[in-house]
Amino acid sequence: MGSKGFLAKRPAVPVGLLVLSLLSCLVAFVLSLLCIFAGSKSGYLENANLLTLNTSRLGHLVLQEPKGLDPNSFLGHIVGAVEGGINELVGDIATSIAKELHIHDFYSIHLLDYCEGFYTPSPIANDTLHPTKNVTHCSKRTPSFHFNATNVIQQELKSDISLPDLEWPSAIQDGVGMAERTIRAMFVFYCIGVAATGLALVGVVFGMLVVNKLTAIFNFMLTMSAFISLALASIISTKFIDKAVKLINEAGDKAGIAAYKGNTFLGMTWAATGLIFLACVAWIYEFFRLRRLGKKSDYGNKEAR
Q1: What's this model's pTM, rounded to 2 decimal places?
Q2: Which of 18, 102, 158, 186 has its CA 20 to 30 A from that of 278?
Q3: What residues have CB less than 8 Å from 183, skipping those under 6 apart?
Q4: What whole-number distance in Å separates Cα of residue 202 and Cα of residue 290?
Q5: What is the mean pLDDT, run by run of 10 residues, along the chain of 305 residues?
Q6: Which uninterrupted H or E stretch holds 134?
Q7: Is 261 helix (H, G, I), strand (E, B) or coil?
């Protein structure tokens, strides 16, 4: 009799709410892991980078205004070969000059490494041609990786060319450095967020077995911790990567260098943040639902007396 009475008073398991929380946490967990490991090997979620440095048109203004170039240098030979039609042909030259200089078309920065490669079939887009990335190499995967754009590109250049010849601005490295500092802070918050989201998944299962206000509070604290961590990582990436891109574009415009922020990455990180917030709301609702049921139960007991 006592056992039946206990079962009768036990709150019903809110299946819909728990499924919502479970799916939200699971998808947020997967998206957060993808944000961390995107670009961990050649071609793996390459579009989910934080920042892409486009060097496919590096030096194009030097070709347009070749005054002061050594005619015996590599760039001098290019200008001499097309003398008289340089302004009309500079677009075609820019299409292949990166390979001729022995550098890559792009360098993309991820959370754990950077990748480099070429645009195919061409880095120049038009109405019928949409370039795609062909990654040829990625650096060693580590949370503390360092990408010195100036050193990397200088080492790749042909031996008789230096970056000053191509009017490479030193402020480019300032923008890349800002992105690197941002990434290190983001990585810490992502680790906390992923760990908290993983625990929240376990908490949902526990919540299916033990339905009470204490369980709801416990799960709310887990999901809130995950939300705060992922939200901070998302805010940092949105604000500071945008600043880094702006700095690089302002400094590199004359040198033919462009930077793009990773919109795919931003979409993934904010989606994970939104989903874990939805799980937070679900557990708040569950707490007040159980509280309301408890008050009704107390009121019914008083009436029975």
Answers
A1: 0.79
A2: 186
A3: 50, 109, 111
A4: 20
A5: 46 74 94 91 85 83 55 51 44 58 88 89 64 87 83 83 80 86 90 94 85 87 95 93 90 85 94 95 87 59 50
A6: strand 132-138
A7: strand
